[in-house]
Write a structure and sequence with these properties.
274 residues; alpha/beta; two-stranded parallel sheet; Rossmann fold; seven-stranded mixed sheet
Amino acid sequence: MNILVMIGNHPRNIAFLEKLSSQKNINIKGLIIFKREKLVPKSDKKLSKHLKKLWKIHFNKRLIAEKKYFNFKSKIIEKFPKKIEIASANELNSKKIVNYLKKTKFDSCFISGAPIIKEQLLKHLPKNTINLHLGLIPHYKGLITMFWPFYFLEPTMAGTTYHIIDKYVDTGEILHNNVPTLKRGDGIHDVSCKALLSAHKDLPKVIKEIEKRLKLKIKPKMDLSLINSGKLFYKKDWKPEFLDIIYTLYKDKIVDAYLDKKIICKKPKLIKLK
């Protein structure tokens, strides 16, 4: 199966590329890499001293977690000298990328950590274009979707979704969900990384499903109810003040609070491939 891969440049995304490249019957014929924000971005100068401190705690913990769970020294990208590097959503949805897609035939496309794909680019991608979304669809759609389950004190709802993309955001057919095993001591970023590792482990199931669909010419299912299900989060929905819930009130021990039955959480109904 000849595939196109679109990934961000964070270690978690590069780990996904490594997993894809190790799969049998997979030929990565194209690679597009999106330069994401720094793992520890600078805070707004207007923030209070307290919020600047929480900002550093939050993003430094993200850096520590990614170093713990993913390979920072991976050289997998060097194996693709003809890769395309982009620095913005506009660049991804440009004529340059459309022309690139017209030159090569791909059976499928796999995405992790790339910007939202607009309709004019989508129509040039294979019908079986799969996104690994860090969040359980339809409960958490859009952006920063691993933060919200912790903000709303429901760590059991933190997970991932393999889904086929369409012209809306996170509304295409759901193929497979994953949630990590929650253990005492897990912070928000531990759960995020463990959720991705669980999804990476199940990647062969997704590839097998896509191979079957290509062979039998099965088209993606349309479920318009997903448009109105759950909540679509935007970047503007998140505020640094929300970090107080995670780090001041709960000391990043929301998982411990759940395991100690100090908070009660619903459990998701997952869609699973065999």
